[in-house]
Amino acid sequence: MNWLAKLEKIDRRWIFLGVALVVAAPLLLGLKTSVDITPPVKNTYEAIDRLPPGSVVMVSIDYDASTMPENQPMLLAVLRHAFQKNLKIILMGHWPLGLPVGTLGLDQVAREMHKTYGVDYVNLGFRPGTAAVMVNLGTEIRNVFPSDYKGVPLDSLEMVKNVHNYNDIRLLVGIEAGDTYEFWIIYVQARFGLKMAMGTTAVMAPTAYKYLQSGQLVGLIGGLKGAAEYESLIAHPGIGLAGMPAQSAGHLLIILFIILGNIGYFLSRRKKA
Amino acid sequence: MMKREIPLLITFLTGLLMVVQFFVPHRPIGQIGTGVLSWYTIIAGFTLLLGIDSLVGMHLKKLQRKQSGWGYSIMLILGLLLALGLGIFSEIKYGSALAFGSPFMYLYTYMMVPLQATMFSLLAFFIASAAYRAFRARTLEASLLLVAAMIVMLGRVPLGAAIWGKFPILAEWIMTVPNAAATRGILIGVALGGLAMSLRILLGIERTYLS
What pTM was computed for the model? Predict the structure, then answer.
């Protein structure tokens, strides 16, 4: 009885050790698993899949290195799918420290799939001002980005010669770690009617469901699980799928600790009564 | 009087212009609105410089006074100078700081990424510890939250589906129905609050930004 009551007061260092072990072990052992596909991820996949070749997709990098393990697999999966479908990519971002992460991902996938800069994809870079930048892009991209991230004028890049505003973009995919995605919805989806899908961290995903339901988002990739689902859909396993056993074990351990804490709580309450 | 009235008038006129240009995007109003947004972007750029100035100033003061943790201030300033130096060098030599293989990207990939990812990954440990300590079925509401959280946690990983095939469906339902309803309610409240605050600022009732 006494030791059961102690369950309420497990030293947090044991919890830390438990989390470290259950997360590290599946990764080190290279365990593999499959995932079920949820409708929000499938809808994102289909929104990209249905676009005719040559359509322009804008990808917004609204995260940085801190959530890279969660967001980067989404970016890579979406880019691989888009390039497979011969879509054109315009990359930009609202997080100053996120641009290098986006550039790394775009360069990696473009190299893998033998895509050419300026013909198949363009990297616009970062401009401060979030909402102001978004609204201004609706009038003319060159008002905000007269040149790409290297300073090359947009008019000299074949792919974007005829791309002026959201009318020339078929879909926006935001890879998000904060509330920037809400700015996209409020200032761009509502005003310009641009079709958009978001890939958010798992903690942000619940807040995005209301926009899915209202039809303002066509799809949602939520957390590492969402990335794993997308990797399954394009049949290109990556970090998302590799992380699933570790995430499963982590969730199970947290549930176990919650149950233990509650057993201890009820036992100590009964003892006091 | 002028010190107060003129800024209020500028705020009112600018706010009004932005409201009108939202509904009338045609020339000349739309064009003026676009110009104002460009100014905003330029000002936002300068706020980044202001932020750097404030950060460096604070840490230099800390160094001068030898306050506790001044060693970290040295690291911060050195890190800032190193990133700035490598960024400028990469721009000159590689044409862009973000060019593949540039020293700036090396610094970013092998220092910034692991450091930031490490900081963020600590969240997993603290969430586990906090969930263990705080998630108690003390009341009916807390119990409902507890059960919902467990279903979502299991439904969002493949192991949950392996335990019971209905966990993902239940988790998706919780996210789509009760969760969406609650977050939508909060959002409507926030939007109404934002609207009221905007009107207060436009009409000069809310003046705290002037102080």
Answer: 0.88
